[in-house]
Amino acid sequence: MTENEKKAPPLLGALSGVLAGFAALTVAEAVAEGVRPQAGPVVAVGGAAIDRTPAAVKDWAIRNFGSDDKLVLQLGILAVLALFALALGILALRFRRSGAAGVLLFGAVGAVAATSRPDSTGATDALPSVAGAVAGAVLLYVLAGRLAPRAPAPGALPSGEGEPSDEGWDRRGFVIAAGAAAVASAGAGLLGRALSSAGGRDAVASRKNVVLPVPGSPARAVPRGAGLRVPGVSPFVTPNADFYRVDTALVVPRVDATDWRLRIHGAGVVRPVTLSFDDLLRRELVERDITLTCVSNEVGGPYVGNARWIGVRLAELLAECGVRPPSKGGPADQLVARSVDGMTIGSPVEDVMDGRDALLALGMNGEPLPFEHGFPVRMVVPGLYGYVSACKWIKDIELTTFDSYDPYWVRRGWARRAPIKTESRIDTPKPFARPKTGRVMVGGVAWAQHRGIDRVEVRVDDGPWQEARLAAEDTRDTWRQWSFPWQATKGGHTLTVRATDRTGATQTEKRARTVPDGATGWHSVVVTVD
Predict the structure, then answer these.
(1) Burial class of residue 524 in the structure, from the number of CB atoms within 10 Å of its CB (0-12 exposed, 13-18 middle, 19+ buried)
(2) For residue 356, which of 237, 475, 226 has the smallest C-alpha distance?
(3) Mean pLDDT for the chain?
(4) Where residue 166 falls among pLDDT bands split at 50, 70, 90?
(5) Among the residues of 237-365, which ranges form H helices?
(6) How far apart are CA 102 and CA 137, in angstroms?
(7) Which of 74, 170, 241, 371 has the smallest number of Cβ neighbours within 10 A?
């Protein structure tokens, strides 16, 4: 047997690394379901990566990948892990202990990431990564051993040349070990899925059992003219399934409403309180149509939606706790909301208590909040971008000051205060559309929450601004549809829109990116008329 025949091919070393990595991940995720899903290594490392990513990069990811940004991140982490697993497998062909030690090192990274997360419950969060790393390291050590050349047995018969035989690497042993490892890893993965399903069962059941009471203060009927029925224009009410989602949660929290509690405390809170979900249901509920907007929404972007929310007036709760806004002598000017996944969001106390319909929302479009949108309870504050108001999966409200505490996004370069800017968008025709000559209906939406839209104008190429038809206004906290009949002539054209709010302010032409407090500029689309 030649020297090359005695050595295992590097490809099998790489395969060993992949199998070890697969085993490590499946064992870790199965253990995480028994500890806490957010403690899994992929989620923990992904969360740590999100926390340390510059605001501009996050903004780029949201702009390019939208709601799939978290999926892209997780796939990227898995791809990096796969590459390192390949390298460690090849390394282990010559240095078994070093290869196994490399797997343990990655486990340590996952353990540190899990225990350093804001929502970490302690040292137990390290268990998934540690268990997975040990399983992966042992497997790689065993598989690498099967690939190592075996020494000739004492007293072996001559091989034909009168010399002892060297049998090379253990083919049969490797195949058996690799096959068993693959089956066991798949089993661990199935176990993890089963535990995941069982773990969220109580939360799902609690949501199914929620019966939203008839609101004591129902929303008024949407005016008949609020929807213009222009094909291509966003519907006045955004269905739950289509409502935008932008957050940092790699695993959507599934909170059991029967166990949920909300604590209100802090500066100026005379009577701290802890409330249950049933406590909120027993209060007078209000129902309001409110449009939400994400600060990551570029000019003309999709991260805005309108829904009918039902919940409890937050200002009333705060007043019952003895909270006063700064204008009435209260010591706290910032309300910090904390979610079950560790997110912190800071809202101006003055805005929350100035009479607007700031809610602790329990329902969305006639049903309990979807898990993706904050079940069992979230905050909704008209007129403020989500990153300073819309805390999902809320569990804690602390009254403090802007000078003494910077919430999550502020620490990453975003502004402390962020009222929603007056904006408008062309929904139809789409960019690079090819409409026919003649009458073309241009349409879209405009928003200036808590101020209201007063006027929308459209410009064709460099021509004069022409006033568009506005749909009936529901409330000043909702967007308004608009339409403009355009007599299209042949050739290329640029359509531009701008809006004016009820304060008389017209949205600026000056382009600004989303960081630090929201994008500005006019939305335009280029079309070619045939």
Answers:
(1) middle
(2) 475
(3) 92
(4) very low
(5) 277-281, 314-320, 349-352
(6) 8
(7) 241
Q: Are 229 and 469 in contact (CB under 8 A)?
A: no
Cβ-defined contacts of 466-475 (< 8 Å, 24+) = 468/442, 468/497, 469/228, 471/225, 471/226, 471/227, 471/228, 471/236, 472/223, 472/224, 472/225, 472/226, 473/223, 473/226, 474/220, 474/222, 474/223, 474/226, 474/236, 474/289, 475/220, 475/288, 475/289
pLDDT tens sequence across 382-438: 999 999 999 999 999 999 999 999 999 999 999 999 999 999 999 999 999 999 999
d(C-alpha 43, C-alpha 30), whole Å:
13
Q: Which residues does residue 444 pair with via DSSP β-bridges, in sequence order?
A: 426, 482
Whole-number pLDDT of residue 163: 45
Pick the closest to residue 495 from 448, 421, 425, 423 (CA basis).
Answer: 425
pLDDT band for position 63 (cuts 50, 70, 90): confident
Give the mean pLDDT of 103-117: 92
Nearest to 291 by CA among 238, 329, 216: 238
* pTM metric for this prediction: 0.84
Residues forming a β-bridge with 287: 310
Q: Are 98 and 90 in contact (CB under 8 A)?
A: no
Q: What DSSP string runs through 162-199?
A: SSB---BS-HHHHHHHHHHHHHHHHHHHHHHHHHHHHH
pLDDT computed for residue 491 by the predictor: 97
Q: How many helices and strands in the chain, by DSSP H and E?
A: 12, 18
Report residue 116 CA to chain centroid gap. Answer: 19
Mention every residue, 6+ apart, whose C-beta is less than 8 A from residue 328: none
Asked if omega into 376 is within 30° of 0 (cis), the reply is: yes
Query: Averaged over 159-180, what is the pLDDT?
Result: 71
Question: How far is Cα 128 from Cα 109, in angstroms, rounded to an integer?
Answer: 12
Contact 357, 312 (CB under 8 A): no
For residue 137, which of 180, 181, 74 has the smallest C-alpha distance? Answer: 181
Q: How would you classify residue 143: left for phi > 0, otherwise alpha for psi between -120 and 50, otherwise beta?
A: alpha
Q: Which residues 6+ apart lie within 8 Å of 356 measured at CB?
A: 381, 382, 383, 450, 477
